[in-house]
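User: I'm writing a short report section on ligand binding and want a predicted complex to refer to. Could you take this sequence and magnesium ion and write out the structure as tokens? A short remark afterwards would be nice.
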Amino acid sequence: MADQKTLILVKPDGVARGLVGEVIARIERKGYRLEALELTTLERATAEEHYAEHTDKPFFGELVEFITSGPLVAMCVSGEDAITGMRTLMGATNPLEATPGSIRGDFATIIGENIVHGSDSPESAARELGIFFPGRF
Ligand code: DAT
Ligand code: MG
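Assistant: Sure. The structure tokens for the complex follow:
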């Protein structure tokens, strides 16, 4: 049992498609809490810092292009085991493998536009929350 905080993003595709309310509704219905929320468009440098672990991947360029392509919604979400729990709510990275009923399983078709981001570990959550909400968590 651990009360955790995690960084959740509704990525630019989710915002453009009008899915912000849908994603937030699922987070709240599950029983997690919103601790902070902001609509923002990322600078390239911020996006590169956020996705630093993927710098050497072949898709890094398109990933940064995509995440900076329009406004996104950044949230700090908290609750019991919220990091793993949010990953389950989101579904697998590749929407083809994401279970129906998950956010990606219900709303996405391609890996490069998979609606949401969620931190994958306590270390990632602390690092990523520091980027989006400096000094707050
Ligand atoms: P996740 O977002 O589930 O944590 P990740 O950290 O492995 O997944 O990758 C970050 C994002 O990069 C992912 O949400 C979509 C994109 N991505 C991952 N693998 C990709 C691939 N093979 N081709 C294109 N985009 C990819
Ligand atoms: Mg990841």
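A remark for your report: The two ends are 19 Å apart (CA to CA). The mean pLDDT is 98.
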